[in-house]
Amino acid sequence: MDSDTQERFDKVELKLSEHEERIIAQDRSLTAVRNLLQTGVRMLVDMETKMSAIIDSQTRLYGVVQEIAEAVQEMAEAQKQLAEAQRRTEESLKRFWIEAATATRLELSLG
Fold first, then answer.
1. Residue 9: partners with Cβ closer than 8 Å, 6 or more residues away
2. Whose CA is closest to 105, among 97, 90, 94, 95?
3. How far is CA 36 from CA 28, 30, 33, 47, in A?
4. Closest-CA residue to 44 (of 76, 52, 101, 57)
5. Which letter does DSSP use for residue 65 in this model?
6. How much is the pLDDT for 111?
7. pTM summary value
8. Helix, strand, coil in percent for the chain, rounding step 5
């Protein structure tokens, strides 16, 4: 092989070597990007799972809050009824004492 041909072969070999290095570098970059994407997808799935759990928890919490609100309304109604019963009891006691006092005075005046 003459020196000109050898020189061309060397240039071609050098270019091939440079291209191989670029391919290896690109392969490393692609591997890094793939790893980042896989990590991101795993994080996304994890976040989605956690969000579902939070939504479920929030739904249950809303149900409990609704039950508490209903219980508070029932207690307020019971308190109104109790206050009314107390008022009626006090009126009944007043009437009883007035009637008892009137009867006692009547007995004393008659007797």
1. 1
2. 97
3. 12, 10, 5, 16
4. 52
5. H
6. 61
7. 0.52
8. 95, 0, 5
DSSP tag of 2: -
Q: What is the CA radius of gyration of the chain?
A: 47
Q: How confident is the model at residue 75 (pLDDT cuts 50, 70, 90)?
A: very high
Q: Is the pLDDT assigned to residue 106 strictly greater than 80? A: no
Give the DSSP letter string of 6-39.
HHHHHHHHHHHHHHHHHHHHHHHHHHHHHHHHHH
- Extract the tokens encoding 30: 């692609």
Residues whose CB is less than 8 angstroms from the CB of residue 1 and which lie 6 or more positions away in sequence, other chains included: 9
Apex 38 CA angle, 36 and 42, nearest 5: 115
Decide: helix, strand or coil at residue 111.
coil
Distance (Å, whole) CA 44 – CA 39: 9
Angle at the Cα of 110 from the Cα atoms of 94 and 103, rounded to 5 degrees: 10
